[in-house]
Design goal:
290 residues; Rossmann fold
Length: 290
């Protein structure tokens, strides 16, 4: 029987529900991210049927050229595990992410549509794909004009989505908690799991190359530990160990976001992890998917 959240966590739907300390912390953390990457990353939404994305060209950081992109696609296929990828039982997939997902749906960063996330999900058997990626997104807090992770998932479920969820969130959540939010890591994860209503959920864990600050790797490890703790409550939850495979060379100089090569590998790896977490045949018993 799926775990049912208490009334407490479900009331965290809006920043207006936060205490004064949490609200101030959210403003601080999100403002830092927004200022650091203004003009570099924007919100993006992709539909599998169209393979489209709403993105803006980065002002400062340029993606790799077409020759490098072609080689990256081959590397991404190998990273996913096989030239003929395994198939998933998830024929419908909803992916919700932050700025670390924007590059996976952006033609600016991935010129070849076959490298982008929607195509990678289709390669492993997902026929219907919904993707919403937004820079600075967290599960609870939100910037002006933005919908937070919980809001996106809730609206999709209310609109009738019934399928598997892939959640590439947590990088900004753990930064907000480090900055002083009184909404803890576990409560944030419970919020998103409540929206899934027992459906399969694959979380992509977090990693940075930063030694200090709200987005430090030490804080990302705290988030990843919270994911493992939460998974004990949810038999429908799996965690893709992206942190265990990512290489420093895939990062941009900011230590958080990725190069074109990194985004291509990330997209293929996430789709491959979905197939291993929820295979078309058989049953995955391991919570952590490598």
């Amino acid at each position: 029987m799926p775990w049912r959240p208490s009334r407490g966590p479900r009331r965290l739907r809006s920043p207006r529900r936060l205490g004064i300390v949490a609200s101030l912390a959210a403003v601080l953390a999100i403002s830092l991210l927004s200022a650091a990457f203004a003009g570099v990353f924007s919100s993006a939404t992709a539909a599998a049927a169209r393979g489209s994305a709403n993105t803006h060209r980065p002002a400062l950081l340029r993606p790799a050229g077409s020759n490098r992109a072609a080689g990256t696609h081959r590397a991404a296929t190998r990273a996913a595990g096989s030239s003929r990828p395994a198939q998933t039982s998830c024929t419908s997939v909803a992916h919700i992410g932050d700025s670390t997902s924007v590059g996976m749906v952006s033609p600016t960063w991935l010129a070849d549509p076959a490298q982008r996330l929607a195509a990678q999900y289709r390669d492993v058997g997902a026929r219907n794909v919904q993707i919403d990626a937004s820079g600075g997104r967290s599960i609870v807090e939100q910037m002006p004009g933005q919908i937070n992770g919980y809001g996106v998932a809730s609206s999709w479920y209310q609109a009738g989505f019934r399928g598997c969820w892939v959640l590439a969130l947590g990088t900004n959540d753990t930064a907000n908690v480090a900055a002083g939010s009184n909404v803890g890591l576990l409560a944030r994860i419970q919020e998103m799991m409540a929206v899934a209503h027992g459906a399969p959920v694959l979380w992509v864990n977090a990693q940075t190359d930063l030694a200090g600050g709200p987005w430090s790797e030490a804080n990302m490890q705290l988030w990843n530990q919270a994911l493992l703790q939460a998974a004990k409550q949810y038999p429908n939850m799996r965690i893709f160990n992206w942190a265990g495979m990512v290489q420093p060379s895939w990062h941009l100089s900011d230590g958080i976001h990725y190069t074109s090569a990194g985004y291509a590998i990330r997209a293929a790896a996430i789709a491959g992890a979905l197939a291993r977490a929820f295979p078309a045949s058989g049953h995955s018993t391991s919570v952590l998917v490598n």
